[in-house]
Write a structure and sequence with these properties.
With 252 residues, the protein is of the alpha/beta class. The chain contains seven helices and twelve strands. It has a single domain, classed as TIM Barrel (Alpha-Beta Barrel), CATH 3.20.20.370. Helix 1 packs parallel to helix 3 and helix 5 runs parallel beside helix 6. The longest helix has 19 residues. The protein is globular. The chain starts with 5 loop residues before the first strand and ends in a 9-residue tail after the last helix.
Length: 252
């Protein structure tokens, strides 16, 4: 019996030189040079880097091939400055999950932790991201932890972020990402009802398509695991993460 396909969805945050040692969340900075080398490695190994919407037919078993999902959380300006040119060079697409209510501002949700302020893309810059062949997804209105909200506020964060991004940017928003990776069954139901096609989490592993159905189970499309890529990820670790069971040991 053939093994089911394993598809990695990579998670990035900031594509920028890391702040000084001791800075909180320093691991979430991947240098532009490292990002270039990682995309180059994907290319020479025959992988196609895809946005979540372009990846969906592969997750559903409708297409097959050597593919990798590429995602960026939060919508940092340095994604446009440092990642987009590299993605375009290699013919890759990706999805950037945007915090709609903080568009053009900074990652203020991180301030209580002592994380340095970083600029988020504004409307014009997000338009440039789209023009570069990249996709925009929703990361809620305000990046609040959904599990700390009343149900009506959860729904507003999920539903309004989609409709407002679509209105402001003139593009369909079909992908969602849970802030902090925290969610429950009610959040999943709100995401489904809002009309998103899929949602990603911070659960670690590659996506495993069901050998029986030839696709990801429908509910699991709204709880997709990802593979974190951080500042310290070496070339060897990167290769192990995408091409072996290295990351799957963390699967829930």
């Amino acid at each position: 019996m053939a093994k089911p396909p394993y598809i990695p969805i990579l998670t990035y945050h900031q594509i920028e030189q890391a702040p000084p040692r001791g800075t909180p969340m320093r691991s979430l900075y991947v240098s532009p040079g490292s990002f270039y080398r990682q995309m180059f490695l994907l290319k020479i190994l025959g992988y196609r880097g895809l946005s979540m919407s372009e990846l969906m037919p592969y997750l559903r078993g409708e297409k097959s091939g050597r593919v990798v999902g590429i995602t960026f959380d939060d919508g940092y300006l340095n994604n446009l400055e440092h990642a987009a040119p590299v993605l375009m060079r290699f013919g890759f697409s990706s999805t950037c999950y945007v915090v709609n209510g903080l568009m053009g501002q900074t990652n203020s949700w991180d301030a209580p932790l002592g994380v340095p302020s970083s600029q988020l893309m504004n409307e014009r810059e997000l338009g440039q991201w789209l023009q570069a062949g990249q996709e925009i997804g929703s990361h809620t209105l305000t990046h609040r932890n959904l599990l700390q909200l009343e149900e009506r506020d959860q729904q507003e964060e999920i539903v309004r972020s989609k409709s407002e991004l679509e209105r402001r940017l003139g593009t369909q928003v079909n992908q969602f990402c849970y802030p902090y990776g925290d969610y429950d069954s009610k959040c999943v139901s709100f995401v489904r009802a809002a009309g998103y096609a899929a949602a990603t989490t911070t659960h670690r592993s590659r996506v495993v398509c069901s050998p029986a159905q030839g696709r990801v189970a429908p509910m699991r499309e709204f709880e997709l695991p990802r593979v974190p890529i951080v500042r310290s990820t070496s070339w060897l670790q990167f290769l192990l993460k995408i091409a072996t069971s290295y990351e799957d040991r963390h699967a829930n």
